[in-house]
Amino acid sequence: MPDSGAPGSPVSTEGADAAAGHGPSLWKRLVSIGAAIVVLVAVFAFALPQFASYQEAWTAIAAMSGAEIVLLGLTAVVKLAIAPTQMMAALPGLGYWDAFAVNESGTALSNTLPAGGAFGVGLTFDMLYASGNAPSDITREIVVTGVWNDLVKLVLPVAALVLLAIAHQATRSEVELALIGLVVSVAIIVLLVLVVRSQRMARAIGDWGARVTSHVLHWIGRPPTQGWGQRLVEFDQTSGQLVAQRWIVITAATLAGQVSVFTIFYCSARFVGIDASTVGFAELFATWAFARLLQLIPITPGGLGFVQLGLTGLLTAFGAPNDQAVAATLVYTALTWFPPIPVGAASYWIWRSHHPQTGRTEVAPPHTRTQDATP
């Protein structure tokens, strides 16, 4: 599945209701849509043109050769083709076509609705259930891919800082931050391994985490949290065997998906004229890794607008000309954001034609996470 939000954490009440088939009130929907429109207008009509006019950006885009345009198109196709492999890795027995249809349909929904990730999870669950998969297997796939996606999101900025340090362009504080991030990432992976290996350890880690969190919540006047130990035991029971047997395949599929998205950004930047002497590989990778964290802002679908502003701002901060920075951002957005919408809609229509009796399931989807849009 596409990238996720918080690792293994419950979705918001609104997201859970949407996934279960009970969407937010009309008023909340109107407010969400209104806020998203305000942000998108502010970013694309006012903020981005402050860097360079769209005419200047278009001049940089129009300068691309025919071969570069074809290569960019191929990278977008490869990204779409690779995307279903993570779902297949986490749900053994799922065919490529079903995985493709489910993944792209959920992504299309996520790319078009504010906080659409929750609706994407609901649609994903329905389609997988209608395709003959057991609810427990679907829950396991959603949880495991969510954890893997968010681990990658944590590791990528750390890797970017390490690359900048190797390139002698990171400050001492940035190197220290990278080391802290690396330690945290390793600690999370170790905890995950311990949870999978032992239910007793899973319960102990969960209860300890609940106590620490409850102390913090007490300081800010919030009620304590409970049940984390049992939830980790349930995660171990549902997902431990899958993780133990297929973690290499799941990791490979997850990394392949991330590499395919970064390749689009890399080619977009290079083909509009940002050469290596201006912005090196490490800077491009850092720009992409940190800007993608802005996907977590739920106001617009997948952080649309925020991500584009982050990409453009970081590219110019690293020395890219303003017009080329805006051009690279627009090309990247066009190739990662828009293709899943028509492809997902067509995939769902074809899938639906093969499942004419399918309706919303009576089984409630797992309240585990939201499905992120791309990029």
Q: List unreliable stretches of 5+ residues.
A: 4-23, 360-364
Kindly state the number of beta strands: 0
Please trace the helix and strand order, writing H or E for each element.
Answer: HHHHHHHHHHHHHHH
Query: What fraction, in percent, of the residue positions are helical?
Result: over 70%
| Terminus-to-terminus distance | 13 Å
Largest sheet: none
Secondary structure class reads mainly alpha
- The structural domain count equals 1
Question: What is the count of helical runs?
Answer: 15
Task: Note the quaternary state here.
Answer: single chain
How does this structure look, described?
Mean pLDDT is about 75; it is low at about 5-25 and about 360-365. The protein is mainly α and about 375 residues long. Helices cover about 75% and strands about 0% of the residues. The longest helix has about 45 residues, at about 230-270. The chain contains 15 helices and no strands. It has one domain.
Write the layout of secondary structure elements.
Blueprint lengths: L12 H8 L5 H26 L2 H9 L3 H17 L2 H6 L5 H17 L3 H15 L4 H32 L5 H26 L1 H21 L8 H44 L9 H11 L14 H12 L4 H15 L3 H14 L22
Helix pairs in contact: 1-7, 2-13, 3-14, 4-11, 6-7, 6-15, 7-8, 8-9, 8-11, 8-12, 9-10, 10-11, 11-12, 11-14, 12-13, 13-14
